[in-house]
Design brief:
single chain, mainly alpha, 123 residues, 81% helix
Length: 123
């Protein structure tokens, strides 16, 4: 790409005439036009890339929000599961106590007789 500060290479020497100077100016103008077209193409491509990046960032933000929402839901479910496990532990503890009481009621009435059979005496 040529710069805007380039100089026009005018024909030198003998035979310099209007047509040669005019042709050089037209050539310079054409090279400037090509430079501007290249700049326009680069600007359009840059704009396309910026827009694409903005869309990707929006999608990333949307996914981050979705992930945050899923994490909140997972956290809620984990708390609920922990509460259910506590309740299950509590109920299993009560069941174990009730089972122990049942065994005591079944064994205790015959316990004295069994100990007496083994020659143990209680007062």
């Amino acid at each position: 790409m040529e710069t805007a500060n380039e100089t026009v290479a005018l024909p030198s020497g003998e035979g310099l005439n209007f047509d040669k100077v005019w042709a050089s100016l037209i050539e310079f103008r054409e090279s400037q036009r090509e430079s501007h077209q290249e700049i326009d193409r680069i600007l359009k491509e840059t704009d396309r890339i910026v827009k694409e990046t903005a869309e990707q960032m929006k999608e990333t933000d949307r996914r981050q929000q979705e992930t945050a929402q899923q994490m909140k839901e997972t956290d809620r479910q984990m708390k609920e599961t922990a509460q259910q496990m506590k309740e299950t532990d509590r109920q299993l503890g009560k069941l174990g106590n009730r089972f122990g009481e049942m065994v005591e009621y079944m064994v205790v009435p015959n316990l004295v007789a069994k100990f007496q059979e083994l020659d143990f005496t209680f007062t």
